[in-house]
Design goal:
Blueprint lengths: L3 H20 L2 H18 L9 H57 L2 H12 L6 H15 L1
């Protein structure tokens, strides 16, 4: 029977180095090495030939590295998508603010009576005189130009 305490002391440095050479990140390599021994502890009963323990352990390590790399790629894609969404959102906000500024400048150019009429229309006043409606019409036409 394999003593995992001894196996840990003997194989951990090699597993850590194996993981580091593939991941190039010390923290992730340490996490992978720890996970390898946690999995080995749980799956030790599946090892059929104790002479192949070293190979079996490094196979677990390789599988953990692949899992780690896939997770890293998913995190990176998610971060890039979130960054793109943020930029798109920022661009839309900038465009909306610019459009509001343009409309405000156009409204400022209207005569006071047209501004009031347009304000009544925007406020939803439904009972306007023919004269007020004409002012709204002319205000809109002025804004379109």
């Amino acid at each position: 029977m394999i003593d995992l305490t001894e196996a840990y002391a003997e194989h951990f440095p090699g597993i850590l180095n194996f993981a580091w050479t593939r991941l190039r990140d010390r923290c992730e390599a340490e996490d992978v090495a720890q996970e390898v021994f946690a999995r080995a502890f749980v799956k030790l009963h599946t090892l059929r030939d104790e002479a192949k323990f070293h190979s079996w352990l490094f196979t677990i390590a390789q599988n953990e590295i692949v899992t780690n790399v896939r997770a890293r790629r998913r995190r990176r894609r998610h971060a890039e998508a979130a960054s793109q969404d943020e930029r798109t959102s920022d661009d839309a906000l900038i465009e909306a603010r610019e459009r509001c500024r343009e409309v405000a400048e156009l409204i400022a150019r209207l005569t006071p009576s047209r501004r009031r009429a347009l304000g009544l229309n925007v406020a939803g006043v439904t009972h306007m005189s023919v004269a007020q409606r004409a002012l709204v019409f002319h205000a809109r036409e002025a804004l379109r130009r």
